TrEMBL record:
Keyword hit for Heme: yes
Matching InterPro entries: Fe3_Rdtase_TM_dom, MsrQ-like
GO CC annotation: plasma membrane
Protein name according to UniProt: Protein-methionine-sulfoxide reductase heme-binding subunit MsrQ
Membrane-spanning residues: 12-33, 53-70, 82-98, 118-134, 155-174, 180-198
Residue ranges constituting the Ferric oxidoreductase domain according to the UniProt record: 54-163
Biological process per Gene Ontology, one example term: protein repair
Length: 202
C-alpha cells in the first residue's frame, strides 16, 4: 500500500525535474566557490565534492532495481537520468583535476594515472562509464537490441565498485565515509544477485 502511494505520487513527476534537482549540488558548489566558502584549498574541495556526488548517484542508480524488487517502489524511469548525472559529475571531477589541480601538466597527469592506484581506478571507472552514457538513449537500445544493451549496462556494477575503491584509496587513512560507500556498493550488488524475496524463497 505504501509503495503504491509512493508510485502514484511520483507518476506525474517529469524526468526533467530530476535533472534539475541533480544540478543543485553543482549550483551550491559554485555559489560557495564565488563567496569564498570552500576554505584554504578550494580546488581540492571542488574536486573531491564533485567526485563524491558522482559516487552518490552511482549508488542511487544501483539501488533502483533492488528497491523495486524488495519494496515495490518503482523508480526505473529515473534510472537513465541518475546514470547520466553520475557521468556528468565524474567528468567534472576529472576536468577540475586536469585543469585546476594539475593545470594541464600532461606528463604529470600521465605519470599519476600509471603510478597511483586510486587514480588508475578512477580513470578506469570513467572509461567504463563512457559507453554507458553514450548508449543511454532510445536509439542505442533499438540499435543494440535490448539483450545486448542490457549486457553492456552491467558495466554499471564494475563502475560503482571501481569508484568506491577509488575513493577509499584516495583518502589513505581509511576513515568511515569511504568504507560506508564501499559497503553500500557491495551490499547492493549482493542484493541484486540474490534477487527479490519471492525469487529467493523458491
Amino acid at each position: 500500500m505504501i509503495a503504491q502511494r509512493i508510485n502514484g505520487a511520483l507518476r506525474p513527476v517529469p524526468t526533467g525535474a530530476l535533472y534539475a534537482l541533480g544540478l543543485v549540488p553543482l549550483a551550491i558548489l559554485v555559489a560557495q566557490a564565488v563567496t569564498g566558502g570552500l576554505g584554504i584549498d578550494p580546488v581540492k574541495v571542488i574536486e573531491h565534492r564533485l567526485g563524491e556526488v558522482a559516487l552518490q548517484f552511482l549508488v542511487a542508480g544501483l539501488a533502483i532495481t533492488p528497491l523495486r524488487r524488495w519494496t515495490g517502489v518503482n523508480l526505473i524511469r529515473f534510472r537513465r537520468a541518475v546514470g547520466l548525472l553520475a557521468f556528468l559529475y565524474a567528468c567534472l571531477h576529472l576536468a577540475v583535476w586536469v585543469t585546476l589541480d594539475l593545470q594541464f601538466r600532461w606528463a604529470e597527469i600521465g605519470a599519476d594515472i600509471a603510478k597511483r592506484p586510486y587514480i588508475t581506478l578512477g580513470m578506469a571507472a570513467l572509461v567504463a562509464m563512457s559507453p554507458l552514457a553514450l548508449t543511454s538513449n532510445t536509439l542505442a537500445i533499438r540499435s543494440l537490441g535490448a539483450a545486448a544493451w542490457g549486457r553492456l549496462h552491467r558495466l554499471t556494477y564494475l563502475v560503482a565498485l571501481l569508484a568506491a575503491l577509488h575513493f577509499l584509496l584516495l583518502v589513505k587513512a581509511w576513515p568511515v565515509e569511504p568504507m560506508v560507500y564501499l559497503g553500500l556498493v557491495l551490499a547492493l550488488l549482493a542484493v541484486r544477485a540474490i534477487g527479490s524475496p519471492a525469487r529467493a524463497s523458491r
